[in-house]
Amino acid sequence: MALRSFARHHALSVAPLLARVRASFHGFGFIARAASGSPWRAPVAALCLTGLVTACSLPVHTDASAEAPDPFNPAATQLLDNTTWELTRWKQADGTLRDVPHGDNGEPVTLTLSTANGQRRASGFSGCNRYMGTYALKDGKLSFGPLAGTRMACATPGGQIEGAYLDALAHIDRTGVQMRAPQELQLIPDNGDTLTFARRGQ
Description:
By secondary structure, this protein is an alpha+beta fold. The chain is 30% helix and 28% strand. Strands 1, 2, 3, 4, 5, 6, 7, 8, 9 and 10 form a ten-stranded antiparallel β-sheet that branches.
């Protein structure tokens, strides 16, 4: 008798809560059925409701909320094989921006790093001519061997930037790689400039 009285007491204590639940969450028919049945079911229904509310309030963590990795992590440069990049920004050591023009045909300055033939080969367009050579990834830095290219003369903005661009590739001091969107490559030559590239052909 004492046990039955305890069950009835708790059934009455949760009855107002269950009434509000039925009004607000009429789609959860199992709660209404639990409350209208045996007195033993009312406390169980209340516990189920508590668990449901707790589960709904759990925090959600997404990759977007994670801290961005350090682009100058030495291991990041190993991701550069078989990628193509377009020069989009040139910040000089004094903080001013240098114009980044395209060639006569509208082609941007590009850099492709390929291992297609079992050897690391670099190629691209330098504003007027096409260039090619070898590259290496060592100690967290991208570096290039001697670069050869076509020898067309260009009295255009693209031709004017070409010499400085190829010189920057020959004197890289630091390399930054960001493979999370937006994917970027930063080359910092020893004069303190920062050349920023955007990933192409993803």
